[in-house]
């Protein structure tokens, strides 16, 4: 059997605030096979964002091992992690985090600056990605000229433009109305189904979780699996 | 362990600051260092991936400037103020120095009474002046007459054109050979004074600064009117004077001697011959110097004073500007925390982030420097002023904003930018990515 | 006072920013303190001593001497109380860099006319009886470590000594002090006796550099000055009589328009300062809009909010400005020491007052725009972060 794409063993995270020890994650084991679409749910402070950040290589565990895309990342240096993120991970944030000064096209091109692609090819790749999210006609617009849903779709285009293996979404619909949220979720689902992107999505909205293949719950730093593959389970 | 972690960033800041300070000092000392450091840096920017990343991020930063115009103008205007004051004060010193020293050269020598530190404090008997002119080493013309002039230096109180307040005007009585000793002096209007008549010619600078010196007007001295009959130019400190015939002026002022003898030398080396000959003569007690040395010395003290004061004032202003730039850049970094965190999440490393903050500050600093130098140039280049010179009278000169001074100003601007950007750049690199990402 | 903790909390909210702003304000006011001291020094000291004195010099120029016979003629002009005279000697002590004024005076009359020179009676007596005697100010004595009894050689520049040496020797018989700080300048001169000077010089005997005249009634000073000048009208040596203050002013003005240069620099400095602190204040208020909204919700009135914000910026200016002026106060003696006494200016009380006025004015100017904005806040919008 092939190794899962993401493989966590005994991962713990402890923050020290003065005298106080806060254990955010306790010995979490988790496998995510390639092609999965996983929804992570849990109340605020349950550690779901910490877990997501660790899988994405933004944060390091206090204990345990973390293997993503065949590489052990828990002890990588800052610079090596940055390179690794550029190659393997695409990000979608709750507040989109587009650079307000750049057009949609330029925003999508950003991750390609880290590659050796020529300017012309960067432009072409970005155009393809924008087309994929259905915003080819908005390429020259600044983020402030787009609706929330459109901005999030630009962010998704930015996340997939460098063709990463793993897509990490932190509350991607948290700041959107229901209609836009559904558009975004359908897009993510399509990317998972048609393009084989592995997805991890943190959300506290059960409706959003329904679009995932499976859902995991985190509570006080402990993982509880409640549903198997398939939408709507557990209701 | 915990303690060392807390102190590590501080230590790093102190380390980077000291490195920056050393770099700045080296740079002030050796301006060419910019090329040594700057060229590889440019190469790095344009060719390496991190360099390209830096440029891209810097561009994003610069593109947001219109949105934070107020804050960035603090950097630009603050540095413009420093550079403006620095360049203006140095231009004043440069102008004064150039005007005074230009009057001197190696081909003429000035003879003063021993111990006198300027013409005005010197005095000779008529006989001494003759002895000096006849000494060996003095060039002679085709009639075998020594090319030398015994000058009488007087001071007259004349109202200034701009303010109407009294100021001292240097009145120089010259001998018939004065034109040959100082060939740079040429009449541009009217005619020369005639010996035996109460006539004067006025230097272009004196004409501009003082009222009542137009050709045809009379300058009153000791209850007698002296008619201005011509205007001369020389491009040096003599332009601040009025000239008349030494004998006529001496008679009117009941003087029986002169202040200085200026002679043309047969060759620059002949100064030694002349000095030795005059020292050997028991009837004379004089000091001999080339006019270059004399006028250089006359300009030194005031020039140095203006330079030191100008630099001191600019240095204090520069401190203020550094604090202003620090403030602005810290704010810019914290305002753009989310942007920077996003870039870091996308895989940008710390180096381009640090480099881009520095580059942005330096770009703003350069803009400020150019603005300041430009303002100094438009306002002050060629601006005519006067001050009290060595002969207790006004020396008229113009501010000179030279390319070298502008380059010096820009150098200051970049150093201020370096210090203003260094710490905020480090802060940008140290921003906690995961926190900043989630801020709305 | 009750709101002081609120103001302090506002300033401490972003410590780095407040500290940096304070430091740049301090730099600006340190510069102001020093430059204003220079300006005051050049525009002649504001002092009551000497308002009854006139200086009479040649109309042609200060370098032109006057006949000694004028002494009696000036003394006979109605309204003139007493006349002293003085000559610029221009001697150098060791090195031209050590410049200080050294003046040959008519000893008794000169001291009578300058009661602000505080000279012990026995030293005064010694000066009046020692032909080669000289007195110096305390500041000058401190600079070269001179003590009464020292012999001071001055190299002659204008007046060679009859005895063939190129220096003159003086016996230091007294050291005087001046109590008023703005008159410190006169503590940096050396005075010696005219009779010694006139007998020793090889040229110009029997001539006088300038006369110092005391008038009976200071209100009549102008008329007396005109009367003196009329005395010598149309003679070969015409005179200019003017008040001592005018004389000093015209002298300073010859060096250049110091006031203009200083004002130009200060304008550049303060323009930048207003921009800088104005921007900082605006920023700090913008960031605190939700907090201000809370204060409004609790029931703070608009007027009070306005006052609070303006008070905060003024407080910032006052702390930074006073820090800067204090630094200038400390730096000036250091500069005097470093320049071996060449640059000797002190901060006058008026500089402190002007500085304080500037601090308050700038504080209000930079505080007002954000204060008005805070005042016009609509609570609902502000709380919602709009």
From TrEMBL, chain B:
Keywords: Cell membrane, Membrane, Transmembrane, Transmembrane helix. It is found in: Cell membrane. It is a multi-pass membrane protein. Residues 74-279 form the MacB-like periplasmic core domain. Its main location: membrane. Residues 313-431 form the ABC3 transporter permease C-terminal domain. The chain crosses the membrane at residues 21-44, 69-89, 304-326, 341-359, 366-392, 412-437. This is ABC transporter permease. It comes from Thioalkalicoccus limnaeus.
From TrEMBL, chain C:
InterPro entries: ABC-4/HrtB_transporter, ABC3_permease_C, MacB_PCD. Residues 265-377 form the ABC3 transporter permease C-terminal domain. Residues 23-230 form the MacB-like periplasmic core domain. The keyword Disulfide bond does not apply. Pfam families: FtsX, MacB_PCD. The chain crosses the membrane at residues 258-278, 304-332, 352-372. It is a multi-pass membrane protein. The keyword Membrane applies. It is found in: Cell membrane. Keywords: Cell membrane, Membrane, Transmembrane, Transmembrane helix. It comes from the Bacteria. This is ABC transporter permease. It comes from Thioalkalicoccus limnaeus.
């Amino acid at each position: 059997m092939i190794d899962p794409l993401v493989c966590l063993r005994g991962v713990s995270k402890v923050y020290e605030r003065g005298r106080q020890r806060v254990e955010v994650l306790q010995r979490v084991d988790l496998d995510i096979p390639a092609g999965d679409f996983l929804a992570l749910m849990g109340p605020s402070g349950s550690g779901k964002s910490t877990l997501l950040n660790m899988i994405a290589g933004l944060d390091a565990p206090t204990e345990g091992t973390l293997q993503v895309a065949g590489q052990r990342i828990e002890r990588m240096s800052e610079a090596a992690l940055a390179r690794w993120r550029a190659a393997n991970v695409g990000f979608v944030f709750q507040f989109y985090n587009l650079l307000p000064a750049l057009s949609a096209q330029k925003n999508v091109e950003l991750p390609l600056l880290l590659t050796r692609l020529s300017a012309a090819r960067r432009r072409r790749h970005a155009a393809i990605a924008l087309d994929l999210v259905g915003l080819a006609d908005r390429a020259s617009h600044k983020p402030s000229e787009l609706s929330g849903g459109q901005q999030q779709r630009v962010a998704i285009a930015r996340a997939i433009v460098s063709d990463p293996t793993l897509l990490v979404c932190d509350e991607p619909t948290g700041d959107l109305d229901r209609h836009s949220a559904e558009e975004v979720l359908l897009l993510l689902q399509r990317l998972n189904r048609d393009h084989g992107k592995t997805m991890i999505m943190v959300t506290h909205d059960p409706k959003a979780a329904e679009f995932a293949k499976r859902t995991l719950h985190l509570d006080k730093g402990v993982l509880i699996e409640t549903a198997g593959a398939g939408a709507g389970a557990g209701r | 362990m915990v303690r060392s972690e807390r102190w590590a960033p501080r230590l790093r800041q102190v380390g980077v600051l000291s490195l920056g300070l050393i770099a700045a000092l080296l740079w002030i000392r050796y301006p060419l260092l910019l090329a040594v450091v700057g060229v590889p840096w440019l190469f790095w920017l344009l060719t390496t991936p991190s360099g390209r990343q830096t440029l891209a991020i810097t561009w994003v930063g610069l593109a947001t400037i219109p949105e934070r115009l107020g804050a960035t103008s603090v950097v630009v205007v603050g540095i413009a103020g420093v550079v403006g004051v620095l360049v203006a004060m140095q231009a004043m010193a440069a102008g004064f120095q150039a005007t005074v020293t230009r009057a001197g050269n190696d081909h003429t020598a000035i003879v003063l009474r021993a111990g006198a530190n300027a013409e005005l404090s010197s005095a000779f008997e008529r006989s001494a002046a003759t002895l000096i002119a006849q000494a060996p080493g003095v060039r002679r013309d085709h009639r075998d007459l020594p090319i030398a002039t015994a000058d009488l230096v007087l001071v007259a109180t004349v109202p200034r054109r701009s303010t109407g307040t009294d100021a001292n005007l240097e009145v120089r009585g010259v001998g018939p050979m004065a034109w040959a000793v100082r060939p740079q002096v040429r009449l541009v209007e009217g005619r020369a004074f005639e010996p035996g008549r109460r006539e004067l010619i006025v230097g272009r600078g004196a004409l501009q600064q003082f009222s009542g010196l137009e050709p045809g007007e009379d300058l009153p001295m000791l209850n007698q009117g002296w008619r201005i009959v011509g205007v001369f130019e020389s491009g040096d400190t003599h332009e601040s004077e009025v000239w008349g015939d030494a004998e006529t002026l001496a008679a009117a002022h009941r003087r029986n001697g002169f202040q200085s003898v200026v002679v043309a030398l047969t060759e620059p080396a002949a100064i030694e011959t002349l000095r030795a000959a005059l020292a050997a003569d028991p009837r004379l007690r004089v000091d001999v110097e080339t006019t270059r040395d004399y006028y250089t010395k006359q300009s030194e003290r005031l020039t140095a004073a203006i330079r030191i004061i100008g630099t001191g004032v600019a240095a204090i202003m520069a401190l203020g500007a550094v604090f202003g730039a620090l403030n602005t850049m810290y704010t810019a970094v914290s305002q753009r925390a989310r942007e920077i965190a996003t870039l870091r999440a996308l895989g940008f490393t710390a180096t381009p982030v640090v480099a881009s903050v520095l580059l942005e500050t330096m770009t703003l600093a350069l803009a400020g420097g150019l603005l300041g130098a430009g303002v100094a140039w438009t306002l002050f280049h060629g601006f005519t002023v006067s001050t009290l010179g060595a002969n207790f009278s006004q020396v008229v000169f113009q501010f000179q904003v030279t390319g070298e001074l502008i380059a010096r100003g820009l150098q200051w601007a970049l150093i201020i930018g370096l210090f203003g950007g260094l710490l905020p750049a480090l802060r940008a690199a140290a921003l906690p990515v995961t926190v900043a990402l989630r801020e709305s | 006072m009750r709101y002081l903790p609120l103001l302090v909390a506002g300033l401490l909210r972003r410590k780095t920013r407040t500290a940096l702003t304070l430091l740049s304000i301090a730099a600006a006011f340190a510069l102001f303190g020093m430059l204003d001291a220079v300006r005051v020094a050049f525009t002649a000291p504001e002092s009551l001593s000497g308002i009854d004195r006139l200086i009479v010099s040649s109309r042609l120029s200060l370098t032109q001497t006057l006949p000694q016979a004028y002494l009696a003629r000036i003394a006979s002009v109605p309204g003139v109380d007493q006349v002293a005279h003085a000559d610029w000697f221009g001697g150098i002590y060791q090195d031209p860099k050590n410049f200080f004024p050294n003046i040959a005076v008519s000893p008794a009359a000169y001291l009578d006319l300058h009661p602000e020179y505080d000279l012990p009676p026995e030293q005064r007596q010694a000066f009046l009886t020692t032909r080669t005697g000289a007195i110096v100010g305390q500041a000058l004595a401190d600079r070269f470590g001179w003590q009464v009894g020292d012999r001071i050689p001055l190299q002659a520049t204008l007046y060679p000594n009859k005895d063939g040496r190129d220096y003159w020797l003086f016996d230091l018989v007294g050291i005087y002090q001046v109590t008023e700080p703005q008159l410190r300048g006169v503590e940096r001169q050396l005075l010696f006796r005219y009779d010694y000077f006139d007998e020793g010089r090889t040229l110009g005997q029997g001539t006088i550099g300038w006369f110092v005249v005391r008038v009976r009634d200071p209100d009549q000073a102008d008329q007396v000055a005109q009367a003196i000048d009329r005395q010598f009208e149309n003679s070969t040596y015409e005179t200019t009589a003017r008040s001592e203050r005018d004389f000093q002013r015209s002298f300073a003005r010859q060096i250049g328009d110091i006031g203009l240069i200083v004002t130009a620099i200060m304008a550049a400095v303060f323009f930048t300062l207003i921009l800088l602190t104005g921007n900082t204040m605006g920023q700090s208020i913008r960031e605190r809009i939700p907090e201000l909204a809370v204060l409004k919700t609790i029931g703070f009135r608009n007027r009070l909010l306005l006052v609070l914000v303006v008070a905060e910026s003024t407080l910032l200016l006052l702390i930074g400005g006073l820090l800067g002026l204090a630094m200038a106060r400390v730096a000036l003696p250091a500069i005097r020491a470093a320049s071996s006494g060449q640059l000797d200016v002190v901060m006058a009380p008026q500089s402190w007052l002007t500085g304080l006025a500037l601090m308050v004015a700038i504080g209000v100017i930079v505080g007002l725009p954000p204060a008005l904005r805070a005042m016009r806040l609509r609570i609902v919008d502000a709380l919602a972060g709009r």
